[in-house]
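Hi W.,

Here's what went into the run:
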Amino acid sequence: MLRIEGLGKRYPHPERPVEVFSDLALDVPRGQFVSLMGPSGEGKSTLLHLLGCLDRPSAGRYWLEGIEVSGLPEEALAAVRNRKIGFVFQSSHFVDYLDLRENVALPGFYGRDSDMRACYARAGQLLEDVGLGHRLHHRPAALSGGERQRAAVARALFNRPCLVLADEPTGNLDTENSRLLLTRLRELADSGITVVMVTHDEQAAGFADRVIDLAAGELRERNGALA
Amino acid sequence: MRLPELQVWVWAWKLWRTRATQALLSVLGVVSGVGGLVLVLAVGAGAQQEMRSALGALGSGTVILQADNHGALDAARLARIGALLPELVEQSTGVAYRQAEVGAGESHPGRARLVGVDSQYASMFSLRLHSGRFVTPYDVVHRSPVCVVGARLGRALFPRRQVLGQVVQYGASWCRVVGVLADNRTRLPDLEGVGVSASDYLLYLPVTTIVGSGSAYALDEITVRFSDEAHLGAGLDSLRRIVERQRAEGEIRVVVPVEVLRQKHRLQQVFQYLLLGATFVLLVVGGTGIMNNMMLNVLSRRAEIGLRRALGATRADIIAQFVSEAMVIAVAGGLAGIILGALSAMLLGWVSDWQTQFSLAAGAAGFAVSLLVGIVFGSYPALQAAAVSPVRSLHEL
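Here's what came out:
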């Protein structure tokens, strides 16, 4: 479902380009929950951005559902992000002047094939599913951290993606809300959606099928083998 | 309803609803700029309308002789002018003015201007009758005690009654109303100061009825209409020679209403150019205000831009969104400016003798200019927003 080969990322610098990592390889089958761990600064978020088509690799190739996306033009990458990938960020950012239902419906609007009424209906249903049906017309600022993360999951699922990328999703949550969120991610994986989660929390990583460390520029399985 | 055509406008509206003070402060320049533009156009349209009405009512070849002293003009002179310039003069009429208290029964609206006229007057000044008839040659010869009232004076004298056939008292005399003028406020411009009065609040009587009979009764004005404006030059020279010969009997002023109007309009044009310059400056300042606001918006909303990009927005979507936001406040400012300009035009019309006319075209021009300001000054910040790297902005989350 998700495959990378020889993936590398280098940032330009006036003196010498900064290489974050190089020659990474990874294969994740459909419906697998992968936890990406490792020390800070090793490039976990950078790798997540590459997997999320938010950035382009400096080297290597990336296939998503059999389509090589690493060479796609900007417009096509935007469509891939919209159609195939759902994001859950650490601080679950929302557009502050739109209500919760409008925020969750944003991927539908950028999908261009949905009319407004249908988008709102789906957003309302997704929010009902995560127990926020009573908060449809509330501003995001009025929500608690746990509610915001549940809403972020609802938004990530709007376009029925094949891949959900989560960057430290439990970083700002208490134990109970963390457990609820991780359970939800686990359910998504069980339903056939591939989940890749960056985390520093070993307990959170325990919900995954597979834990991979990114350290010293290499991806290693928890059992020590190269991924 | 699809993106980005309509939804971006809804978002833009919601954005500014939550940042109303910021929006208000950034559009003040556009409000005053568009207001100024609408005022300029209203003054211009009013001037043109006034000129058209004046030309329609008086003709471009009209000259008015005004007597500064009683006796400088009389009926004999009026007849002589017609006889001396038969090939040039199309029409001529003599007028005498008086002031008197007017009343009818228990209604006493106060002083009104009495205008002694002959039968030519109505056609020369394009007066329209609402009902009845105007002064006839018979009335002038026989000094008939009849009168024609202006529309507004008629309403003041007989607020709840039929005006025609009623008796009006002026000073110690009386007359029977044989005609009522149509409301002329939209037809004949107020040409006070150029020899013609607004006909709304006037009482017209046969000239002989108020100044006496005979062949040489005194007149205050003689109005001569030459066959067209091309004959005006030659006719004016002849008139001036005739006037020079009369100098011993008193001063006579020669007034060409169209020339006076043109001078007035030249002054209005200078005002228009000055206002247009100020308007341009205000629009640039207003646009800069919007651009400044939008630049701050781009900086403070980098995280939102990153989020939208992550959710599938393309650079074009971001540009459309930010340009729409700039256009929404510019157009809101423009609409406020149109209202301000229309009110200013009305106020100017009230406090001065300038005729102003707000038109839909002026409103449309104001709207178009505000739209343009939004596009021009919103584009650069929008391009900046589209250039924001989604990865970098997501680090700010």
